[in-house]
Amino acid sequence: EMASAPAHHLRVRVLLVVLCAVSASASASFPWPWKRSGHDYRDALAKCILFFEGQRSGRLPADQRAAWRGDSGVSDGRAAGAGVDLEGGYYDAGDNVKFGFPMAFTTTMLSWSVLEFGDDMPREERRHAADAVRWGTDYLLKTLAHPGVIFMQVGDPWKDHECWERPEDMDTERTVYNVSAGRPGSEVAGETAAALAAASMVFRDGDREYAELLLDSAKKAFEFADSHRGAYSDDMDLRAGGCPFYCDFNGYQDELLWGAAWLRRASGDDTFREYIQNNGKTLGAEDSINEFGWDNKHAGLNVLISKEFIEGEALSMQSYKESADSFICTLIPESSSPHIQYTPGGMIYKPGGSNMQHVTSISFLLLTYAKYLTKSSHTVNCGDISVGPDTLRLQAKKQV
């Protein structure tokens, strides 16, 4: 229950990411605009990207389209006595708090969406999507700018949640929280590494210098996460600020593998693949956890890593393909294996708060895995039935 409030906030952003994905992937089969059953997915794509402009913190650019928003949080980091520049980034839905852990995950997911489906987006929307990614990464770079610490949050969430006001008018405390060697936060650092690595590929063709900066910074964030292992929720001061809103319920181990997987994809460096192979078992890669979201990366990790195996580039990663297949089979009602619960109307249902965060993130993985399978001869063996990419796309479309 404690996780339900922030999960509601975050699910809005994840929902928009999956709408971007389903909108863009639709163009592979239908010309723009793709409009079926009364749903204009091109319009949804445009609106979902525009949403992020309404969440911007800091000094807004001249080409800001959400003109009803003004500058806010321009002295973040400095006014709180921390003496650092933490202007920018995104507010967390209706809050005026900048939570670094879920913000980094949002940036990772936006980047992944652009990487997989950006070529199918209209040019202008692809540019707006990249701008949304950059607004996140510009801020994340600032959180890494000072040696020995990573800034993970701006704003006192308890006082902020008691006062509903526009960010332009906020007068609540802009408390700054950071992780360090003495009070580690591997999940924050690992997700930041994943976000910067994924984003580096978004900008590789258009701004190579910026892409290299992102990748270098991602490596530093990952080294920090791995060298100083621990969860920020184990520290009393950080727990007071981050919990129960975005407490690390699942542990930091999955973020280490997640960060390594994105660094492997972005850099092609075998070192990160070896890291996954050498540390996978101890970090829980073999755990049967069929979830994906801001706190739990397991299912997404399996889908991401399986790409190399499906493409025949890393046969040693077969176990991740098998885990991804197992996850997919839980989503197929006709499968003979145990599968996820559905509502009478056919929506994915997982007991607990904020069900839509599961629906949206799982739908994204369905679309992405379908894309990987399309480029190969692989299918998913779910006991009595064999499942192909068309089935996965149809399942994702039903959820959206």
Automatic annotation (TrEMBL):
Catalytic EC class: hydrolase
Segment forming the signal sequence: 1-28
UniProt-listed GO biological process terms: cellulose catabolic process
Keyword Transmembrane helix: no
Domain of life: Eukaryota
Reactions accelerated catalytically: Endohydrolysis of (1->4)-beta-D-glucosidic linkages in cellulose, lichenin and cereal beta-D-glucans
One GO MF term attached to the UniProt entry: cellulase activity
Residues annotated as domain Glycoside hydrolase family: 41-384
Keyword terms, alphabetized: Carbohydrate metabolism, Cellulose degradation, Glycosidase, Hydrolase, Polysaccharide degradation, Signal
Keyword Hydrolase: yes
EC number annotated for this UniProt entry: 3.2.1.4
Family: Belongs to the glycosyl hydrolase 9 (cellulase E) family.
Name of the protein: cellulase
